[in-house]
Amino acid sequence: MRDKFKFYCYSVFIVCNFIFIFCKSSSGNNSEQVKYDSSVIKSSDLKKSEWEKQKDNYQYVKEGEKIKKAEKEDSLTEKKDDSLNWGFDIDTSVARNVLISLVIGVLILIIVWLLRKSSWVFDKKVNDKNLLIARLEENLPESDIHPHLSKAINEKDFRLAFRLYYLLLIQQLSLQKQVVWRKEKTNGEYLVECSSKNYFESFNKLTLAFDQVWYGEYELTKSSFEEYQNDFKSTLNQIKQP
Questions:
Q1: Rounded CA gap, 113 and 80, in Å?
Q2: Model confidence over 99-126: pLDDT tens digits?
Q3: Nearest to residue 204, comparing CAs of 190, 183, 219?
Q4: Nearest-10 Cα torsion for 1, 217, 128, 3
Q5: Where does 140-221 have alpha helices with state H?
Q6: Of 179, 166, 175, nearest to 232 (Cα)?
Q7: Which pLDDT score, from 0 to 100, does residue 183 have?
Q8: H or E stretch including 114?
Q9: CATH pick for 139-240 out of 1.20.120, 1.10.3470, 1.10.10, 1.10.8
Q10: Positive or negative, the Cα torsion across 21, 25, 26, 31?
Q11: Domain edges within the chain
């Protein structure tokens, strides 16, 4: 589970870096600078009275006004086309930022979903194991541990197999009247009851290993489990001897 969590954290880091680089490169130099002519337009030297006298002799065409009118019509046409495409006038940089935000939001949701799903699967497996142990401990002397032990070994769940072996050890001690079994008793109390037995050293060794493997969440390899498996079998045989 820890390895999976590290993997997802590393994935989040990579995605965030990619988004940061993308946003930085897309921002660029998108703004266009508009330069205006700051030169002062001087009024014509032609007097108004003289112009009134001469204007009837010439056919005056207001080219400047016609050009402005044409530009205005083109501008209205472009805005109309944009309104047809977007439904309203919108800046492309704003649209790009909105799109990037949506992409980031979707990526975050996907990552959170993956993290929650992996955590849920892990928690479900842990709960299933705890329920199995609780069910077997409810009436340990009469519980059938061997089928669950074989399944755990076949599935290479060595931590669970170790836990079941230790339950089998306590069960055998109870059946052989070596200890008085009670569900609420601790492993230390069982050790005290077996302190004078010839298998005490091996039982003590397995108890210390059990605390490390189960409560310390120590992951067993196949070879290390097989070594402990031999110790369990040897101790169980010693307990069965009169």
A1: 43
A2: 888 888 788 877 766 665 554 444 455 5
A3: 190
A4: 10
A5: 146-154, 158-175, 187-193, 200-210
A6: 166
A7: 87
A8: helix 92-138
A9: 1.20.120
A10: positive
A11: 1-26+64-125, 139-240
